[in-house]
Design a protein that fits this description.
Elements lengths: L3 E8 L3 E4 H7 L4 H8 L3 E4 L6 H16 L6 E7 L10 H9 L6 E5 L5 H15 L6 E10 L12 E10 L5 E3 L5 E4 L5 E2 L8 E2 L1 H22 L10 E4 L4 H14 L9 H5 L16 H12 L8 E8 L3 E9 L3 H6 L3 H6 L2 E2 L2 H10 L17 E6 L2 E5 L4
Parallel strand pairs: 2-15, 4-5, 4-6, 12-13
Antiparallel strand pairs: 1-7, 1-8, 2-3, 6-7, 8-14, 9-14, 10-11, 13-14, 16-17
The chain binds acetoacetyl-coenzyme A (CAA).
Acetoacetyl-coenzyme A (CAA) binds next to helix 2, helix 6 and helix 7.
């Protein structure tokens, strides 16, 4: 049975920061953020947006682009590390915003940036096992990455969501859930204690943990896929906390294969995957899938029928290297989503506006609910400790 991604949806806030502006405000050479980190724009969420609204927007795009009614969904999972409640899952809010029916398993998954991949792999197995009974799964990766003002992690923030419609009719990518490579270790490279809105990170150690996990997952992948090398793929999408990390990852894999000039293959195999992430920043669970969307939307090559590699890394840590085959026509389907135009239509914030938004975010969890225009999915505020939302034209 073929299983995989039938449709994609992407959501980003309507505002962003230009990294050269941020660099100047922080007294840093702009080339450090643009080239050293590899990000040009960083998405910044507005006060009526959160993990729920971004997830709903992305889910809505995936369903409408596929022409699939919400009632066809039998499994709705949101992978996130920036949830809005300790008990109620983001997925429950999304269920009502999208009008998904009651005969559906609805929950949230967490393992840092790996949470979405955990949900995707589970969804693939759910379909392969027959439990889906003709229904489809909607897996949504949604996060607002926040390290805090003037921290080393600040230029690696971002906000956005990617939704994956998963079914036995994979019009985008067929996946191979029985041949993935996995590596998990208990490490403290990046975490967010219950009392903190901002992530804690040991930056250089987190880079090393990512690379160690990549090595472990790729070795396992090669054991399960004898003879496969990075040259077996037409493209590779890595988890992208920032563009330079993908370059370090690619160097690592090529070095493992004895390549003395690992950068020589970077542009051809990885370059297209970074076009969209470089304009959004880190979106944690969704970063790998934004890199996949970027590959399909911007690669100059025809990837029809070609195998591509994917690497997911979640701090803490759990990592998975897996592969899929691009369905003929997938690139046109993803191009029709107009993702570059979505990014082009964002407003670039001044650094003063960005800093004010960052300072106000802590108060949003207790802001009293207030009416808002019903032109998109919106977070209205809190009413008797209950978060309230609005769907377009509801
Ligand atoms: N022009 C061009 N390049 C420059 C430069 C300049 N003027 N100045 C510095 N650089 C380069 C540096 O040489 C360096 O490149 P290399 O890594 O290739 O050596 C790069 O810019 C970054 O410089 P620093 O290492 O000095 O940067 P930093 O101390 O500010 O920290 C960071 C960078 C560790 C990524 C930090 O931003 C951070 O902690 N980010 C959050 C953690 C993170 O994203 N970790 C990734 C792995 S964990 C993961 O993937 C999970 C997840 O999503 C969080």
């Amino acid at each position: 049975m073929r299983v995989g991604i039938e449709a994609l949806g992407v959501a980003v806030p309507p505002t962003c920061v230009a990294m050269e502006d941020l660099a100047r405000a922080r007294g840093v050479e702009p080339s450090k953020y643009l080239d050293g980190i590899g990000t040009w724009r960083m998405s910044v969420a507005q006060d009526d947006e959160d993990t729920v609204t971004l997830a709903a927007q992305a889910g809505h795009m995936a369903l409408t682009s596929a022409g699939v009614p919400a009632n066809d969904i039998g499994l709705l999972v949101v992978g996130t590390e920036t949830a809005v409640d300790h008990s109620k899952p983001v997925a429950s809010y999304v269920q009502s915003l999208l009008g998904v029916g009651r005969r559906c398993r609805v929950f949230e998954t967490k393992h840092a940036c790996y949470g979405g991949t955990a949900a995707l792999q589970m969804a693939l197995d759910w379909i392969r096992s027959g439990s889906a009974a003709g229904k489809k799964a909607l897996v949504i990766c949604s996060d607002i990455a926040r390290y805090g003002l003037k921290t080393a992690g600040e230029p690696t923030q971002g906000a956005g969501a990617v939704a994956l419609l998963v079914s036995d009719d994979p019009k985008i990518l067929s996946l191979e859930p029985d041949r993935t490579g996995i590596c998990s270790t208990d490490v403290h490279d990046f975490w967010r204690p219950l009392y903190s809105k901002d992530a804690f990170v040991d930056g250089p150690y987190s880079v090393q943990c990512y690379l160690d996990a990549l090595t472990g997952a790729y070795e396992h992948f090669q054991e399960r896929n004898p003879g496969v090398t990075t040259d077996s793929f037409a493209a590779i999408a890595y988890h992208v906390p920032y563009g330079k990390m993908a370059r370090k990852a690619h160097r690592q894999l090529r070095a493992m294969e004895g390549d003395l000039t690992p950068d020589a293959s970077f542009e051809a195999l990885v370059g297209s995957s970074l076009t969209l992430p470089a304009q959004v920043g880190n979106i944690y669970t969704g970063s790998l899938y934004l890199a996949l969307a970027s590959t399909l939307a911007t690669s100059p090559l025809s990837l029809d029928g070609k195998r591509i590699g994917l690497f997911s890394y979640g701090s803490g840590s759990c990592a998975e290297f897996f592969a899929g085959t691009v369905t003929p026509g997938a690139q046109d389907r993803v191009k029709k989503l107009g993702l570059q135009s979505l990014l082009d239509h964002r407003r670039v914030l001044s650094i003063e506006e960005y800093e004010a938004i960052m300072r106000e975010r802590d108060g949003l969890d207790t802001r009293p609910a207030a009416p808002a225009p019903a032109d998109t999915f919106r977070y209205l505020g809190v009413d008797a400790h209950r978060r309230t939302y609005l769907a377009p034209n509801s």
